[in-house]
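idk why but the lab printer keeps eating my pages so im just putting this in chat instead. protein + adenosine-5'-triphosphate:
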Amino acid sequence: MLKIVNITKSYANNGVQNHVLSNLSTEIHDGDFTVIMGSSGSGKSTLLYCLSGMEEITSGEVYYNDKAVHKMSEKEVANYRRNDIGFVFQQMQLIENLTIFENIAIPGYLVEKNTKNVHNHANELLKQFEIEKVAKHLPSQCSGGEQQRGGIARALINKPSVIFADEPTGALNSKMSINVLDALTSINDKGQSIVMVTHDVKAALRANRILYLQDGTILGDLKLPSYHDQDSKSRETQVISWLTSMGW
Ligand SMILES: Nc1ncnc2c1ncn2[C@@H]1O[C@H](COP(=O)(O)OP(=O)(O)OP(=O)(O)O)[C@@H](O)[C@H]1O
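predcted complex ->
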């Protein structure tokens, strides 16, 4: 689904080049729940931004199915971001003066002309993530978990085939994190692909593949059975032992 060929990404800071991603190649498969881990500053968020078209790569190639993301015009990137992918941020980035319902539905109106369809889909998502009761609330009137589930629902309004999530549980307590991870797992169970950056082992256990980044390149690539097909204790032991071997 996503093919990444030899990408590099550098930022210039006061005339000095900071090489954040170096010669990174991999494929992200359709239907997978892929997690990206690695130490702070290893380039995880930058990789997610490059794959989602929010940052331009310095060199290399990124393909989403047959589309060359690295060659897209601004308009094509906007369409890619609107139609093909959804993005969930750590700080939910919901619009403060819109209700949860409006936050979810508005990106839908930009794509689907039939407002009734958008309205119905937004209501289905509110139900799926159990946030119907806060539909008319402003984000500031919701808990962190409700806001984050609102953020996931918003990312799903245009039925993207892949969801990118940048530390979606980073700002949540453990109960709310489980709630958000359950929501992501259920989306993945329905066939949508997820690519999630996290520092949290509990979150990483949801993945069937973990990529470990170090200094902007992939140091390790762990394949796991689906989350439902392995007992949680042995999965945790396997993942922690692998992460330890990566120097985590
Ligand atoms: N817009 C930018 N301009 C300049 N440097 C940047 C920019 N964005 C990121 N960087 C630098 O790129 C490097 C990688 O950042 P990135 O956020 O991708 O790392 P990360 O692995 O996600 O880190 P963390 O786990 O701390 O969130 C860091 O050194 C960071 O300072």
